[in-house]
Write a structure and sequence with these properties.
By secondary structure, the protein is α+β, with helices and mostly antiparallel strands. It has a single domain, classed as Hotdog Thioesterase (Thiol Ester Dehydrase, Chain A, Roll). The protein has 2 helices and 7 strands. A 5-stranded antiparallel sheet has the order 2-4-5-6-3. The radius of gyration is 17 Å and the shape is globular. The mean pLDDT is 96.
């Protein structure tokens, strides 16, 4: 049974507290990565309806800080689905709660693999694309997957030498 991109979208919001921050008063990059991983996991879990594990994170960019006292919003959706793997796009925004100003602060693509109770990859439903934008993202994600696989093969060959 196919599922739509909209079936698995995630949006999480929380306030950045002092224990999330470095001495400059901005959120730790690792904390942002954790929130991105959680959002992508929920997105893929919703699609697959089974456990998922993180396989890779691509193109992680920190474009700006999120300060203590600001809201951090993490949005995630599916771009691509294969037999057992899925690519989720994740965007992070900061919001100044006093002014309402929002800025995109981070982006990444995370690949998750659906696994059964024994931790073995398991097949997931196909992704039903509904818009030109979704079809474009699917195509671009396929290109990123091809690049990831080429790089993985290159690393295997280098390790074998």
């Amino acid at each position: 049974m196919a599922r739509h991109v909209s079936d698995s979208r995630v949006e999480m919001t929380e306030i950045v507290m002092p224990n999330d921050a470095n001495p400059l008063g901005t959120i730790f990059g690792g904390r942002v990565m954790q929130l991105m991983d959680i959002a992508a996991s929920i997105t893929c879990f919703r699609h697959a309806r089974c456990n998922v594990v993180t396989a890779s994170a691509d193109s992680l960019e920190f474009k700006g800080p999120v300060h203590v006292g600001e809201a951090i919003m993490v949005r995630s959706w599916l771009n691509w689905v294969g037999r057992s793997s899925m690519e989720a796009q994740v965007e992070v925004f900061s919001e100044n709660l006093l002014t309402g100003e929002r800025r995109r602060t981070s982006t990444a693509y995370l690949t998750m693999v659906a696994v059964d109770q024994d931790g073995k990859p398991t097949e997931v439903p196909r992704l039903e694309l509904e818009s030109d934008e979704e079809r474009m993202r699917f195509r671009q994600a396929g290109e990123r997957r091809t690049q990831r696989l080429r790089l993985r093969e290159k690393h295997r060959m280098e390790e074998a030498e």
